[in-house]
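Course assignment 3, question 2. Fill in each field.
Student: A.L.
Task: Predict the tertiary structure for the chain below.
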Amino acid sequence: MSKINKVKILILAGGKGKRMQSDLPKVLAPLKGKPMIKHLLESIEKANINDIDNNTGIIVGHKKELVIEELGDKYEYIVQNEQLGTGHAVMCANESCKNADHILVLQGDMPLISENTVKNLVDKHLKENAKITFATTTLPDFEDWKKSFLSFGRILRKDGKVAGIKEYRDANDEEKNIKEVNAGCYVFDAQWLWKNLEEIKNENSQKEYYITDLFHIAAKNNEKIETVEINPREALGANSKEELEILEGFSI
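Answer field:
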């Protein structure tokens, strides 16, 4: 089996979506007639980065039975019983990823991610032999439809290299003015991921385990971090009905 076949895909799909004014799990909110997560799954399928079956794990939580019923038995389901953040969600998948060399983590509420972005992330990660490769997007401003990006984590760089990611809630005024933001799509070297995921703490305003804390660990240890710049539209997620309406206005 070649290395490309040892990329395990994890989709974070455990969120409640309380700002959607709906009791549905957030990833099942309909966009252009089908659940958001189905648009993402189609892009993953077209990207064809694996030749092995059942290599996509979907991390479910809130009303998990509805997600499983909607998507069927084509996927592996990993249960996150408590919503303790993105880092915790990935921790829940440790056992199901034991045979993977690399882990691709995607957000189930980002329906506009293209097959090219999925391919480019994995290709660059393998080519550069990085510990982390992730997608960023750069905004000219945070006005109009782009105000959705205000809450995104900011990319901290030093001498052009990624030095970390600061979540908006924990950022100071200078950091909030940074226009390069985290798109929430990551590829990790699996061995490095599992070793360092245990080190992250929940010492932040949300008391959650952020997967983005791994970037500070990697930068501090001079590990290789690569980025792939993507179109802002691809990076849009939907946390509210208003943001879902913005997505409806874009072509897929």
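Instructor remarks: Residues 44 and 115 are 6 Å apart (CA to CA). The first helix runs from residue 36 to 47.
Grade: pending
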